[in-house]
Design goal:
319 residues, alpha/beta, 9 strands, 51% helix, binds zinc ion
């Protein structure tokens, strides 16, 4: 009897010893962020935007996802007048206990806009957000660069980052970058053409496409850090996600992901890696850290491609 118990204890300890590292490897974590709020779509009606918002927030609530949404305040205006129905969409995000961040007023690129102009677009983009977050006793604390463009020169980049700092903002990096916006455009175009079959084909390709980006950046994370860092996923507040975000969430759960806040993700020491990249492209922070470390070109291989039929439907040449 005693002998059997001892065997069981040893078996349990062995199981624990082999289980722990595996579990650590499987405990992947991701913070989900949505850009271009309230809505990025060819749908332009207030009712259409309300429906997209309702569906997105429904999926977030059902799955208890601590999402941060990045706002372009310029989109709150209809014919140069503040549209209360659009402001109400942002309030719905805050009422769902989600956080909002600044994505500039008019979504220009820091790579092609003079720094002073760009900075005033950031300040213009926080007027309503400030009021709304204050009413919620919350703080406006994150900034996401449009197009992930962080400046063509190190000088611009650093000057802008100290500007952000002095205005209380933290940059919201992205690790799982992707071209989901091309799928969103293809989906919008198919719907606008009443082509239900094309919508379904785009949606069917969308989930495996985003999953392939997870696989890609998990691989780069392993190669660069020897572990899975706490990831940040970039998506947009669009129609394809209104209809299919739930399937994406299921895919992430199946891959072993736990959903964390952006604040929690940024506690990962990976985000303190040196990044001196500048250039024309908006890329993942994993790519930036790798470029800063001068990794060989082969390091980046295997980046997923957008299927031809999706590019064609979206009217985009490559992605
Ligand atoms: Zn954007």
């Amino acid at each position: 009897m005693f002998r059997n118990t001892a065997v069981l204890v040893i078996a349990a300890l062995t199981a624990l010893a082999t289980f722990s590292p595996a579990q650590a490897r499987e405990q992947k974590q991701v913070a989900i962020t949505f850009d271009d709020l309230p809505v990025a779509s060819t749908i332009q009606t207030d009712e259409g935007w309300a429906e997209i918002t309702r569906k997105l927030l429904g999926t977030m609530k059902r799955n208890k996802l601590p999402v941060v949404g990045f706002v372009n305040e310029g989109k709150l205006y209809s014919n140069d007048k503040l549209n209360p129905k659009r402001v109400a969409l942002l309030k719905a995000w805050l009422d769902a206990d989600l956080e909002l961040g600044n994505h500039t007023f008019s979504h220009r690129s820091l790579n092609s806009t003079p720094l002073a102009e760009f900075q005033s677009d950031v300040l213009r983009g926080e007027n309503i957000l400030h009021e709304m977050t204050k009413a919620k006793r919350a703080k406006l604390r994150y900034f996401r660069h449009p197009f992930l463009h962080t400046g063509r020169s190190l000088e611009t980049r650093q000057a802008f980052e100290s500007f952000l700092n002095s205005h209380g903002y933290t940059v919201a990096p992205v690790t799982i970058d992707n071209s989901e916006w091309i799928f969103a455009r293809a989906y919008d175009n198919a719907r606008d053409a009443n082509d239900l079959d094309a919508m379904n084909r785009v949606a069917a390709a969308y989930i495996p496409y985003i999953e392939s980006y997870f696989a890609h950046f998990e691989n780069l994370s392993d190669k660069l850090f020897g572990r899975q860092i706490k990831h940040v996923l970039l998506l947009h507040a669009n129609a394809i996600n209104a209809d299919h975000f739930g399937e994406l969430v299921a895919m992430m759960k199946k891959r072993g992901y736990k959903f964390i806040t952006l604040e929690e993700a940024l506690t990962d020491t990976a985000y303190r890696s040196t990044d001196t990249t500048t250039g024309a492209y908006g890329i993942s922070w994993i790519d930036r850290w790798a470029l800063t470390r001068n990794v060989p070109a082969g390091f980046f291989k295997g980046e997923p491609r957008t299927p031809e039929f999706v590019l064609k439907l979206a009217g985009v040449e490559s992605g």
